[in-house]
């Protein structure tokens, strides 16, 4: 049975054999791209090659790219632990052509790798194409011999790929694997497509447009290819598993979590172990790439992920910091492919330990408050926004952590009430400043804070009380 490390190599070697340059993964913090919070796909480091702004000494590349999807256009944070196929951190395997080959070559490469090198049975595969893309449908028919009902035309943005609000984009064709009718879910485009029976494994994007901030789009001068396949998803199916979390690599992290918390990996705390294993990877890789927990921007997203993981460890009964103890298991699994992890090991461990130690001081009390508030409510009622705000402001609970905790109880938060409480606190802070005689500077400062507050990855957090951190 091939390990995830073997599968990564098979992919890169296949494309290297087909004249692609193996290029290293770029860091999770995109260079010179303020529009993007974290690298969310393989194409990010090649963005300027597609638009023609930059050229390099290769026209074909292949990578295994570190990706984080925990905010912005692609946000899978809430899926983690609950679907078989989503992580916040994952590796995206990709092959790229910059104005070299296009559809008629990209599709045969994908088919050959999947059915010959990986040996996946053809009758388990089906594909989608953008509804107007007859050319891609014809190529699939010719190359793979797929019948019409296995080439599904999709009219939505699912088959028009965009990295974010701006940048290169284009129609795409996606390859799905049918895990069998013992699992709930319908084929792509059907009413039950959110199930986990048909799992998307590979997306081939035909890069031919560029999207601008004002909503307009231009045709690019050259036609390019950008593909992305989740290593954990292809790994699951090649290891005869349905669930990404049952692959060798994820399983060993889950077992490390079970060991550290003395809680059965497959018992009632299963979801907690999955979340911990996932968040261990995203937090460790983010720290290795220079992100530190803070109260704004990328650092706040990191802090949110860390605190979430810590709550899940707490749910498993852990009363001492746990996350930092799992780092060696991660490095054993991934340190060879990503040497930056080993280099940053002391920093990762210290950062996790410090954050967990501090958060523990308020976590217990916050959870107790949450339980008390819930006990006061009628059955099924949402948590009032004020209570969620108190958890945020006094106990350092990011809103999504509270939501995550409530989800297990089938409840949610009155987010409008939360926003109102936040706005009220802001107004009070503003008034206090105004009374301080520093009105002009204060006005500028608050305008800046307001602007930052408006961006999706900052949120209003600059005022979070120190005691909560
Ligand atoms: P899905 O529809 O399952 O959420 P997606 O369409 O958002 O996936 P793409 O943006 O097309 O995914 O990314 C390319 C590939 O990366 C996907 O086909 C999948 O194999 C993998 N992938 C995407 N998101 C995740 C994730 N959160 N965790 C693991 N693998 C992922
Ligand atoms: Mg998605
Ligand atoms: Mg999809
Ligand atoms: Mg996709």
From TrEMBL:
Signal peptide start-end? none
Gene (name only) = alaS
Q: Which cofactor does it need?
A: Zn(2+)
Q: What are the residue boundaries of the Alanyl-transfer RNA synthetases family profile domain, all occurrences included? A: 2-469
Q: GO CC terms for this protein?
A: cytosol
Query: To which protein family does this belong?
Result: Belongs to the class-II aminoacyl-tRNA synthetase family.
Q: Is the Oxidoreductase keyword given for this protein?
A: no
One GO process term, biological-process aspect: negative regulation of DNA-templated transcription
Record EC number: 6.1.1.7
Give the species this sequence originates from. Answer: Paracoccus halophilus
What function does this protein fulfil? Catalyzes the attachment of alanine to tRNA(Ala) in a two-step reaction: alanine is first activated by ATP to form Ala-AMP and then transferred to the acceptor end of tRNA(Ala). Also edits incorrectly charged Ser-tRNA(Ala) and Gly-tRNA(Ala) via its editing domain.
Tell me the keywords, alphabetical order. Aminoacyl-tRNA synthetase, ATP-binding, Cytoplasm, Ligase, Metal-binding, Nucleotide-binding, Protein biosynthesis, RNA-binding, tRNA-binding, Zinc
Return the protein name. Answer: Alanine--tRNA ligase
| Span within the parent record | 1 to 469 of 886
GO MF terms listed in the record are: alanine-tRNA ligase activity; aminoacyl-tRNA deacylase activity; ATP binding; tRNA binding; zinc ion binding
